[in-house]
Amino acid sequence: MTTTTYTQSAVLMADLSAYVIAGRPLSGFLKAVVCNDLMGAVMIADEHSLALLPSLVAYLCNEAPQACWGKPCRYTLWVDEDSG
Question: Which sequence spans correspond to the domains of the chain?
Fold first, then answer.
């Protein structure tokens, strides 16, 4: 794994974890992943993000509460509940 890939992986995981733990809003690629928008995620992903897609999905499936991912409405509720 190159330094760039490792750094990007750490940043994406930190952003995703902050969303899961504190409801911090996401945008772009990660929001598409959380909302289960595969086509949207793939269309906007760079090569490093695309390579991490399986790991990010595995994290959501195995570690994140089901109430915070899988549908756009779950994303919206998760962000709204934690920001209010």
Answer: 3-83
